[in-house]
Amino acid sequence: MRWFNALPSGAELASRLYRQVDKAATSLILNLAEGYGRTWESDRLRFFETAESSAVKAAAYLDLCVAKAELEIEQREPGMDILTRIVLMLRALYGSSSG
Q1: Is the pLDDT confidence value at 18 over 90?
Q2: How many CA atoms lie within 13 A of 19 on its CB side?
Q3: Is 73 in contact with 10 (CB distance < 8 Å)?
Q4: Can you tell me whether residue 15 is helix, strand or coil?
Q5: What letter would DSSP give residue 18?
Q6: What is the pLDDT of residues 39-88, one digit of tens each?
């Protein structure tokens, strides 16, 4: 999640939308950690589902940042790539846990 912490040039922490990206990314990381720490499969899946939801929310906020001209589309792409890979990873975990 280094991209989120590096703050792409042009993005400002004072931006309400970018703060929401940061908040969603933080929630994503914390829910992944919490899920991996759970021994009950149902608990683990619940945290992974919340992490996926946070990733999707962060992506939506990145789109809003571009729409509001707070980020250039080229600045958004690395974050979207990271979020896409995380969502795919989480969905693979669901498949291996539910079968």
Answers
A1: no
A2: 4
A3: no
A4: coil
A5: H
A6: 888 888 999 999 999 999 999 999 988 898 888 888 889 889 999 999 99
Closest CA to 90 of 55, 42, 41: 55
d(CA 67, CA 96): 37
Interior angle at CA 85, CA 31 and CA 77, nearest 5: 110
- Strand, helix or coil for residue 42: helix
DSSP state of 21: H
Residue pair 45/94 in contact (Cβ under 8 Å)? The answer is yes
Could you tell me the pLDDT band of residue 16, with boundaries at 50, 70 and 90?
Answer: confident
Handedness of CA 33, 29, 94, 46 (dihedral sign): positive
- Size (the chain), residues: 99
Q: Which two tokens stand for residue 23?
A: 């908040």
Amino acid at 19: R
Contact 79, 3 (CB under 8 A): yes
Six token digits for residue 25: 């990314």
